[in-house]
Amino acid sequence: MINVLDLNLVRTFVSVAERGGMTTAGNALHLTQSAVSQQIKRLEEALGTALFIRDRKGIRLTRAGERLRGKAVRLLSLNDEILAEMSVNGLSGSIRVGVPLDLVGNMLSAILKAFVEAHPHVEVSLVSGSSTDLKKLVQGGAIDLAIVEELSSVPAANCLGVERLVWAGARHGRAYRRKPLPVSMVSESCAFRPIVIEALDKAARDWRTVFENVSMEATAATTRADLAVSVWLEAFVPDDLEILDAECDVPRLPSFAINLYGPSRNAAAAARSFEAHLRAGFPRERRAS
Question: Which domains does the chain have, with CATH numbers?
């Protein structure tokens, strides 16, 4: 067994583990699928153990791979941190980060603030939009990283956490009792929209759209005024709204994963450092296993 790990192999391993496939990892790393496969084979030979199970269902981590994954992420983060801190001017550059409209505030604000304070020479630009649009932007290279909300039934090794999608209404409100149910919707490209409509239709619950917009602030205001109900990830429901349970005659909604896409292997140190900072700062109790 070797005494020093090749960080390039470790970075490839992390990319495959996060993206759940060698082809998608190769696209992100700008490598062929064959090159990625060879690098994984070299790392497995160096460590003397298999890291992935390959079958008809695809590729997934072995127990050894699961143990390595967390340590590999920390190793790469420490490597990037050392390089940044030991350089003459410290970490610098610019990062473009895509964040869904409903996740911009809350816990992400603290994570963003801590990174900016630790790296004052890095310019962080946020791009807000629907998860569908943000995923296209990061895959096309228009932004460096994207936080994307997707159904938790979709396997993703790059998962930061899983949250229940819930209904919310005004405190002591009555909107949920009205027929048809008044619903405040966001844009048509919102990842929640088709799921909500399908759930309402399956429950045979009549509903109507009260307000369609691209602003979560406007959605919250409409809900707060008891004009309608709305849907949120449980951890991100505004404090002045209340979660509606099954007794309120609203259909149960599925859970959504909060997944991180990017950066590419050739991304600047600032983007890789931000990725590590985000992973470390995201509440551990909300991460998917």
Answer: 1-86 (1.10.10.10), 162-256 (3.40.190.10)
